């Protein structure tokens, strides 16, 4: 499964690239605003740092204006993915970009029907918001599983990008139901590797070794 970082903080991204575990980045207007950065400059910096797809979202709400904004974003770098809201106008823009060979990420998906429509509009990625579905009393992981089933039924190639992931349990569950990717905040990324028993076991190994009086492996 591909792992994307869901942030616009460039230092948070750069500091997590060395193990080759980060396959891409997603941003949204809230994340760019929080980072206090200009969208074009920040997306360019992220695209320069990361080889994989980098989602950059339009802020227009009418299809023509979304298309104009998306084209400007796509010109930043070849790995930009134009992020569009899951609205009727957003899907018009999505179809236009699909026909132009420009990658899209259709975001703010909360139902299987919405995901079906995005796939029919030629979306490259669909972003179901797992945490926000859970917050509203729904079943976020059930939504992912349902979309997986529908896409497989009809052979849609739109990749399922699980978003609004609040913790490691969401990531495990998204992987288990066959999502293609998950986008996660840096703190959740760190929590995928950390385990208290790993830390405890390592501390015991090192203590036993230190007791021999040896330095390093010698
Ligand atoms: O990138 C969009 C999505 O991941 C937002 O997550 O935590 O604001 O619901 P959240």
Task: Report what the structure shows.
The chain is an alpha/beta fold and 218 residues long. The protein has one domain: Aldolase class I (TIM Barrel). The protein contains 11 helices and 8 strands. An 8-stranded parallel beta barrel has the order 1-2-3-4-5-6-7-8, surrounded by 7 helices. The longest helix has 15 residues.
CATH architecture: Alpha-Beta Barrel
Give the CA-based shape.
globular
**What's the CATH C level?**
Alpha Beta
C-alpha-based Rg, rounded = 20 Å
Domain count, please report it: 1
Category by helix and strand content: alpha/beta
State the strand order across the main sheet: 1-2-3-4-5-6-7-8
Bound molecules: SN-glycerol-3-phosphate
> Could you tell me the strand content as a percent range?
15-25%
User: Low-confidence parts lasting 5 or more residues at pLDDT below 50?
Assistant: none
Which superfamily, in CATH terms, is the homologous superfamily? Aldolase class I
- Mean pLDDT equals 98
SSE pattern: EHEHHEHEHEHEHHEHEHH
- Can you give the helix content as a percent range? 40-55%
Count of separate DSSP helical elements: 11
């Amino acid at each position: 499964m591909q792992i994307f970082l869901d942030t616009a903080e460039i230092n948070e991204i750069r500091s997590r690239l060395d193990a080759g575990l980060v396959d891409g980045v997603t941003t949204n207007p809230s994340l760019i605003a929080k980072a206090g950065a200009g969208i074009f400059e920040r997306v360019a910096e992220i695209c320069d740092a990361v080889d994989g797809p980098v989602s950059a979202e339009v802020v227009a709400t009418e299809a023509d204006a979304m298309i104009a904004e998306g084209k400007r974003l796509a010109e930043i770098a070849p790995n930009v993915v134009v992020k569009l809201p899951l609205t009727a106008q957003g899907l018009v823009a999505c179809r236009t970009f699909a026909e132009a060979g420009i990658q899209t990420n259709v975001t703010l998906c909360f139902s299987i029907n919405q995901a079906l429509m995005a796939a029919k509009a030629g979306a490259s990625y669909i972003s179901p918001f797992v945490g926000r579905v859970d917050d509203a009393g729904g079943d976020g992981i059930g939504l992912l599983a349902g979309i997986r089933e529908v896409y497989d039924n009809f052979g849609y190639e739109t990749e399922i990008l699980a978003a609004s992931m609040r913790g490691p349990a969401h990531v495990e569950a998204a992987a288990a139901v066959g999502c293609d990717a998950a986008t996660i905040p840096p703190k959740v990324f760190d929590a995928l590797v950390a385990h208290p028993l790993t830390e405890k076991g390592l501390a015991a190994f090192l203590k036993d070794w230190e007791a021999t009086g040896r330095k390093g492996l010698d």
